[in-house]
Amino acid sequence: MPRWSLHLTSLVVVAAAAATAVSSLPGSLLAQAPAAQGRAKAAPDVPIEPKAPASVKEGATWVPPLPVLDQVAPPQGWQQPGEETPAMPLTLLRLPRTNIWRAKFPALDFHVHARGLTSKAAYDELIALMDDIGMGAIVNLNGGTGAELDKVLAEGVPYKDRVANFITFSADGINEPGWSQKFAAEMERAFKAGAQGMKVSKQLGLGAKNPDGSFIQADDPRLDPVWDMAARYDKPVMIHLSDSIGRFYPIGPKNERYEAGLWHQKGDETNNYFKSGPSNDVIEKARREMHRKHPKTRFVNAHLAMLYYDPEKLASFLDTYPNADVEISATVQDLGRAPRFWREFLIKYQDRVLFGTDGSQSRGADEFWRPHWRALETLDEYFPHPAQVRTPLGSPGHGRWQISGLGLPDAVLRKIYYQNALRHLPAMRASIERQLAARAEGAR
For residue 1, what are the contacts with CB-CB under 8 A and spacing of at least 6? Predict the structure, then answer.
């Protein structure tokens, strides 16, 4: 008999003897045995895949439902620790990496918060960053209104081939008589002055309130003249409604966003709507109704319409409303944890998806911008995602995990990077075409 077999036989005999000895101990001693102590402890609450309904055949696929609120609720008596979550650890996994430093094609970023573009120096700093990372053009969503917008537009004239400035929607005064007509008139003035679209933030739906305290939603009749004015001038409405689905769940260790570092300070409930906000369903119902009521208005829905968590709902939304497009900012962390699925989804809906980052001049090229190129262009695996939110110690607040690339085909990349956006911003076409030609010439 081989030596290793003898050792194995001996171990089995010893283990069996030990088990027999423990089982024969008196009750008082059995309670002191290590194995018994282990059995006395409560089993950890480990997440497992829910079982498929009986109607789903073996080998078939189904989509499990979202957790119910009670499943995510923290244990009774649990309190926020008051300690921040550290940055992600360094990975010890050695994998191939694509050497990538700029976008494969000059991208048009439809979601940038380029605040403070009121001087030549501010514009020059932004253009230098764009040139470094291969960004063809951007949409600045922080143009503002009134005199602020006028200053941004005036200083931006020499850069209008690279920076499209949008008027920024404001619900201030919406409960006052005549607000609808007043703001629609400001939109018209802005479009005539050079604003190429309008940005609407999540304050609509989650912030602005009626006199009775209820939240004003996107299908409110007072907004009809606003959406109609955008259609009249054929300007896109870049609209951010709702928020990450985890923000509608209780704060606690079972919430992915908490685990990533949000809400760790005692009493912090910033942008968590479980206790004080409207339900996610209310906001989504209003989004759909807004699109239905205004078929001639072109809406670009930020963050995949906040439906990155339920691609079936996202597909239904796009199939139902031809006036709806989406952009991918602040969703790369979720695209990259299911890269094969989302690759097929983006290929199928390649004509409806725009590139976006939710970035700003303050974000680092290697930490934020270039990971977008890696995620979309390569099949690299297990790398840091471009976190749209960072906690004080650097944890990626929208997902404490690594991602893998989607490796999109060039034809799809071109559509997402710039072609789809140019449908909304035809004035940027000549600039993008010049940059494409320059790259082609440089490659010879």
Answer: none
